[in-house]
Amino acid sequence: MGRKQLWDQDEVLASAMRLFRHRGYLGASLRDIEEATGLHPGSLYRTFGSKDGLFHAALDAYNERVVRGRVRVHLLEPADPLAGIRSFFTSAIETGPEPDPGCLLTNTAVESFALPQAAAGVHHGLAAIEGGFADALTRARQHGDAPADLDVGTTAAHLLALYQGLLVLVRAGLPRTTLHSVTDGAMASIGSLRAPRKQDDHE
Amino acid sequence: MGRKQLWDQDEVLASAMRLFRHRGYLGASLRDIEEATGLHPGSLYRTFGSKDGLFHAALDAYNERVVRGRVRVHLLEPADPLAGIRSFFTSAIETGPEPDPGCLLTNTAVESFALPQAAAGVHHGLAAIEGGFADALTRARQHGDAPADLDVGTTAAHLLALYQGLLVLVRAGLPRTTLHSVTDGAMASIGSLRAPRKQDDHE
DNA sequence: TCCGTAGTTGAACGATTGCTCACAAAAAAT
DNA sequence: ATTTTTTGTGAGCAATCGTTCAACTACGGA
Description:
- The structure is a homodimer.
- By secondary structure, chain A is mostly helical.
- Chain A has a domain at 60-189: Orthogonal Bundle (Tetracycline Repressor, domain 2), CATH 1.10.357.10.
- Chain A is 67% helix and 0% strand.
- The first copy, chain A, has helices at residues 9-23, 30-37, 41-48, 51-76, 81-93, 104-110, 119-142, 152-172, 176-189.
- The structure holds a DNA duplex.
């Protein structure tokens, strides 16, 4: 019963994702959103309740589609796990035809004081990336491409930080040569984190 | 000639720095600024011309005082360069009494599409950090605390990315244990970047 | 066919935004 | 003492913000 919805929710969320990634939550006005998604405020508020609601739906969609998709393609599926890790990094630099670089997770983490309820979504996305690194590292260790005593957990956290840092530098507009050398450093650093030999420090 | 200025520019910029770091450029309204600095809009516009002008002055002051200060204390001056690098990282996690964590450079890089003219300031600050890392690494190599064939330039870029990534994760509110393991990973990865043996890749 | 329901539209709301400016206050110049 | 010059003050501006809502349109069931 009733009228049929004229717009596709996936397309609207994809547009919203792009807009929020580009401008941030505070930087994207509802007029911008209306223009980007084609949705009038009434439909928007009927469906998502508020700008916050739309943002959270877009963040969830980003985690579900973009993040998990990238993790699967680059970290879980490749036969060569180390090559996958490398392509995970380089694909954040060479974004191809996409106009603006960066990652909605990174941006939202930084903007989190304007969006306290978004913390959970950010944590989910970061955990998915970290888990992907851990999986690839475990497989690399099995294949003999990484030291047998590699500390997978610490290295995964290390790569997550490096990846987020790369996205900051991408966003800052640093030259591509610098960004690629960060990738090289990331690959070279794999293998330096060994031996869960108990390390005692900071009290 | 004329009346004496009743407020201290350094104090005002310090307050503005804190506010912008906490809320971001878009998230800090002029009413917030007025409350934080004690400056009425008239004086503010007389001195800085606009909200942008104040932001740029605050970013410059941040580079000049906070960034360069931290680089000097942790990276240039310590007799033990590696210990200095470690404390540079840990001091970003354990901020002490300061209420909110993070770095104005990181945040501004992410927010850069709202602030295109801030790119230069961000570049300056990042270059200062990278240069500090390079200095500390060079000295560590001289002291024999790092491999003689360490690629200082690439490692400095690597540490810069790691540091920015750490600040994103701090901002995301990840547990301190995770953050400290990133620091451990950073220290362990020093030494894995050797040999400027020409590396041919990505066309 | 006519009604009930779900969806669309866009004008308009009060609040807040960055910013201006007329006026008052204080110090130097005369 | 008066004028000139600089600074402080804060009410108020137009524009924009996120949001609401009444009128309208399309569909299914009676």
